[in-house]
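sorry for the late reply, my laptop died twice this morning and i had to redo everyting from scratch. anyway the thing you sent over, i finally got around to it. pasting the sequence first so we're on the same page, its 97 residues, then the predicted structure underneath. double check i copied it right bc i was rushing
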Amino acid sequence: MKPVEIHPIAEDEILEAAEYLESKSEGLSDRLLNDFLRVVGRIAEYPESGFQILGKVRGARLSDFHYDIVYKIERRRIYIVALAHQSRKPGYWRGRI
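ok and here's the structure:
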C-alpha cells in the first residue's frame, strides 16, 4: 500500500465542501468526510481502481456526493490533487500535476 499525500489546495477544497454541506444540513460534513476517507482508503490499497483521466492521473467518485477525488499515481505515493465537483470547471486542477 502506497502512502497518500494531499495537495494543500485540495485540503482547502475538502474543508470548503464540508463547510458548505454543513451549512445546508447538519451532519452532511461528517458524511462527506467519512465518504472521502473511505474512498482514499480504497485508492491507497487499489490505486488503479479509479477511472483514468490522463496518463497516471485517475479519479474516484464519492458515493453520496457529486465530487471526484482526482489523484496521481506516483512511484512512492498517491498524490491527491483535487476534490473536484463533477459538474463545475472540468480540469481546473490540471496545473497541480
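The longest strand covers residues 78-85.
thats about all i looked at so far, will dig more tmrw
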